[in-house]
Amino acid sequence: MKYRELALVLGLAAFCLADDLTLSISEGQVKGTKKWTYAGNSYYAFYSIRYAKPPTGSLRFQAPVAVDPWSDVYDATTEGNICYQVNVDSADESEDCLSLSVYTPKNPSELSSKLPVLFNIHGGGFNWGSGQTKGSTGGLDPGYFMDTQKVIVVSINYRLGPFGFFSTGDTVIPGNAGLKDQRLALKWVQKNIANFGGDPSKVTIFGESAGGASVGYQILSKSSQGLFRGGILSSGTALCPWAYQRNQTEITFKTASFINSEFNYNRDSATLFNYLQNVDAKLIDTASKSYSDWAQSYSDTGLNGVINGQLQQGFFYAPVVEVETADAFLTEKPYQILESGNFNQVPILIGTCADEGLMSYNQYTQWTLSIYDQDNTILVPQGMHIQDQATKMVVGNAIKSQYSPYSDLQYNILAGIQYFSEQDFQKSLIRHAEMQSKYADVYFYKFSYSGQMGGNTNTYPGTSNVTHTEEMGYIWQRGSASSYPQADQNVHQRFMQIWTNFVIYQNPTPTQEAVLQNIVWQKLTENNLQYVDIGADLALSQNPIERYAFWKHLILTKYGVPPYETF
Length: 567
What we know:
Mean pLDDT: 94
Shape: globular
Number of strands: 13
Strand content: 5-15%
Low-confidence stretches: 1-16, 298-307
């Protein structure tokens, strides 16, 4: 009996080994594993491959350094660490997190030609999230893309929170380490993706929310030139008010003060740097949570938490403009770069969910809006640079009147949701699309279909009930698509066709196709804000939001003070 059990175990082991695939890349050999989609298609997954040295010790807060070659076979059959999260604690958080996963629908030896590559940058406000397929910080399962058998998918981790976005405003901690991680991962793809069956000349970068903003920043940075040929920006751009931080130096020192009170008054960059490089990473992680709680606390005026609303005014740990150095990622304001045309002029697919601001609706929304009613200047974007309080009040009153002319916002929650949608996301996305359309092809979409597959349970009367991140349920595999209503399946199939078409052709509708209801997607231009509405059916439409002209006039013509960083 024991011999038969042993034979069974050995047989199973041999079967499992047969499902592994070992490839040679520039750093050494890497072993992946065979997986199956819910639809029953097989593919190969290479999980959590290091692309950089652990950013610890002297490398903490610095630009990443490419990983050294290895002599053993790198085991990429399971997912590894995630990067430290500001507001989420888990056992797999670590500074040793700079890895990426590669998914290919075929054994590279079976491909007759190299496949285009979708390079995914996860969202999470630059403070949380990961490139993992499972868990509260993941959910980026590539199964639906593998079902198409048309593209290779790469999904990455990059440093978040203070580890990725601390800055002392000088050369000591210049900032943007997380964006530089993304850039190094793109360089890794250029060097290695052909070994997985991918075409390095056909890389499209894709991200949602802060991932979309990251795609925008990669487009803006000349240091990323030649690393990709197109971009997909879902619900995020570098022009969003939350995607840029004007006060990072102060935030960096104040965060450190929660570890050592000396930094409440000491503003010496070298002292801070030397101190923080020698403390336990968990202390920095905890301090970032302490800072966030402190900055959003209920102050004596009752307004501090609202004034510091990160979606309205900037995530505490976010990209910055750096001082000039040899390895700088961004040395000019995002808006100014787009306006000048001095960026990577690649085609983009860019868009929004119909009710982005619905994610801000909760049991505190009415209270928040009541604070806005007390002081309408809180409605004014910091990016308008209005210093005069009387002028700011005029602008705040104009914004309030635009959204709720006949009642306080606290009694018009629908108007508040619309303000959050348009101020935090949509006006910025449209402006980015307009500006880039002068130099490259731009295709704009609005997602307005409310279905089960999106997973949204946060609804409000008068909205389309299509909240921030909802399209991700139709793109990343969270279950069997066939288990959802047919209308959901139709929307899912259209998303997959649009995304893969853009990756392959840099055009979402290169030909008329039945699955896309034979539409021909027209490019957006500054004089013609045309887009495709992705609802139960696809529809060609004009002007994604009614109030865009109001915002454009308010900021660019009447009250804004250039030079702008965001919009």
